[in-house]
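Quarterly update, task 2.4: iron/sulfur cluster-bound model.
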Amino acid sequence: MLLVELIKGFSVTLRHMFRRRVTVQYPEQRRRDAPIFRGRHRLQRYADGLERCVGCALCASVCPSEAIYLEAAENDPTNPVSPGERYAKVYQIHLLRCIYCGFCEEACPEDAIVMGPEYELAADARAKCVISKKDMLTPREAGFGDYETFPAPRIG
Amino acid sequence: MNEFLLDTLIIVIKIGVVFGLVIGSVPVLVLAERKVLGWMQVRPGPNRVGPWGLLQTLVDGAKVFFKENIIPDGVEPLTYRLAPLLVILPVLIAASVIPFGPPVKIAGREIPLAIADFDLSLLFFFAVATLSVYGIVLAGWSSNNKWSLMGGLRSSAQMFSYEITLSLSIVGILLTSGTFRLTAIVGQQSGGFWHWNVFLQPLGFVLFLLAAIAEVNRTPFDLPEAESELTGGFHTEYSGMRFVMFYMSEYSSVFVMSSLIATLFFGGYNPPFPYTFGTSWFDGAIGLFWLLAKIGALVFFFIWLRGTLPRLRYDELMMLGWKILFPLAFLNLIFTAILVALNWPGWLLGLVGAGALVLTDLVVSQILWRRRRAAG
Ligand code: SF4
Ligand code: SF4
């Protein structure tokens, strides 16, 4: 009967009124991200402070949206930036081009570029969406995540 | 002369109070709608502005007030500007016949708590309230936009179709109460909830409720502004204050329609228990309280309906209006007329109405079921 069906339908919405709300009050409350969440990129270091990136540009060539711009330079053997022969002098990612696919992370032979957990990437100008090394490098003082346990290999 | 001035002053004050009440109900209704719909969808609704989100509609209003009033190229300027007024004014004028409380005596002068209290007040309500369809059609036509035009035309077709049911379904009440005067209809329903017209005219009430929802363009009958089909419907091209006028008219017509339903079927300002009204201020306030409580319950029902039912398809809307509601309203009119002529008691009238309701429900669901089965 139509009337019975209507009453059934109406009681469903009425019951939902008294359910516990599922809304997360975002800026104050936050959900826990999944461990594999792909947010803004990070450039990792070794525990002794050397940068992992060796400037091989594999990330830039695998990137499907050509979001990575990279200029490599030779390391000064007395004061190296990275353990390899070369290091990334300029490393920029255009966050508006990036599709957060994570291919760069996968391609990197040194585990230097990884996708971090940051997702609040709004900016009021396009220029601010191009991030460079100083935005991405994990600071020396901060922990090094899982990479801490790896000793830095030295070449030469 | 002095007497005349005093009368005019009283009328002006009443107009101010009633219009203030109707317009003032809009932010409350909007907030209530957003809150209740939110709860039904298991989310909290607006809760950022002010304690518990109470100031949300105020802030929205302020924001819209400072928005640019765009008049697009190619519109018909005069009608484009006139349409929002034509939509909201009939609603306000129709509110003038609703009795908001029993007559009160102030300084030895008996004042009815309705702006206008005259013999054909119910007829006046329908005559005026229907005019708002002109505003909608003109808004759609003058916008120079096919979606707006379609929304406007849909609305006129819908209003014509449901107007008939709306008017026919109250004729039953007119027959049992024998008057067009709203204050008299309310007066007859005093003395406890069992005297309310809803028990005398259950079928008429259901028909009137359905037609009223269609008249005020609420889901599931909100085809004139069906967002998924017509973008915004007749008000697509409007912005700023003119858009707000459409918005306000929608909510104030919900308020006014609810007050009419409460007046006709739920005893108006009468409390649900036997109570004899005096003519003091206090009794007036009690009457207003009970009317507002009933309006609140009806508004909740309107919101609940919006949270529950999906929008009808256009042909379904027309089928429901012409093939089901209209014959039923006619049936209701005929058997009420016969029973009233035979002088049957009210409870029997109610019983027959309820029986007819259940019977039609059975028949309609049978038909729908067969049709669905035939369609495979
Ligand atoms: S996540 Fe994908 S798109 Fe973004 S920089 Fe890395 S490879 Fe390019
Ligand atoms: S981030 Fe990795 S892939 Fe990219 S240049 Fe540096 S080492 Fe090569």
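Highlight for this quarter: The longest strand of chain A covers residues 86-94.
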